[in-house]
Amino acid sequence: MKRIFCILLVLSLCLTSVFAFDFDFSQTEMSDLIGDYSKDIVYALPAAVSADNIWADAYIGQLISIPPHVAVGINLGGSFMGNNKMFENIGKSIGLPILSYLPGAPVPDASFDARIGGLFLDFDIGVHGSFFRVDMEDMDFLNGSVQVNSYGIDFRYCILTQKLIIPAISIGIGYDHVSTDALLTMTSEAAQLGFTFKTNADLLSATAQTSWNLLFMKLFAGARGMLPLGDGITSHTEFSATAQGASATFNPIDAVNKDLSIHVFGGIAFRLFVIDTTLGATYDITNKDLGISWSTRVQL
Prior knowledge:
Layout: H1 4-22, H2 27-51, E1 70-81, H3 85-94, E2 105-117, E3 123-136, E4 142-160, E5 168-187, E6 191-214, E7 217-228, E8 233-243, E9 246-249, E10 253-257, E11 261-272, E12 275-284, E13 289-299
Antiparallel strand pairs: 1-2, 1-13, 2-3, 3-4, 4-5, 5-6, 6-7, 6-8, 7-11, 8-9, 8-10, 11-12, 12-13
């Protein structure tokens, strides 16, 4: 996964905080808003991770064949956090009330992925990830840095290959790691805001999927369970502000999610020669978060 979303989420929080001071929110209200934000992230992250690993084929085939079955490409997508208070405030402040009608605060995402067919047995192995650091310097309103490390691996075994109208079925297990580290300072005419924001997650997943090919089109659906490992999905937020001649430092806020989440996903893919384009969606039944994805891959 790729956490371009981290930049946007933190910026959204910054903007909302500025607007909050303009609206003369109390320190307690601001603390509650930031607390809700931190908690929403740890429960929305599994949906973003799940949307990051959607393949149309339940099983891509064996490596030793003609042609050998391998695939590599990019994935764009994300999820919507269930709590949309931040974007409601932003929409009111900038004259775009339509933002309040989103199913949740958007969590965009981008990553690379690859998959290789198994040897002799009907299995395949996939990897995906994103690694980057963004330094923001010499900007009039924003300074700081955002670093993201995310990667995942999964193994799928085909228990039924497609035969005419009978779809292919596979089961699999996977592991994902996601960590973000952001240190930002935002300055406006209304306030100066400082943020330290960190997340960390290790997730174990189990997936069952079915797919059916018809000429150049593929239909697919599946279900996935995701369980946080170790200390769970954690976020740590520190926030300070100076506005209207007064300064305020808020207590650090920590949020943890150790709950199993159940996801369903599905979509459609189109293939032109060796180019495979997949449109997919995933829904976290447990936390009621929606994820969407668009992938383009070279697949043999």
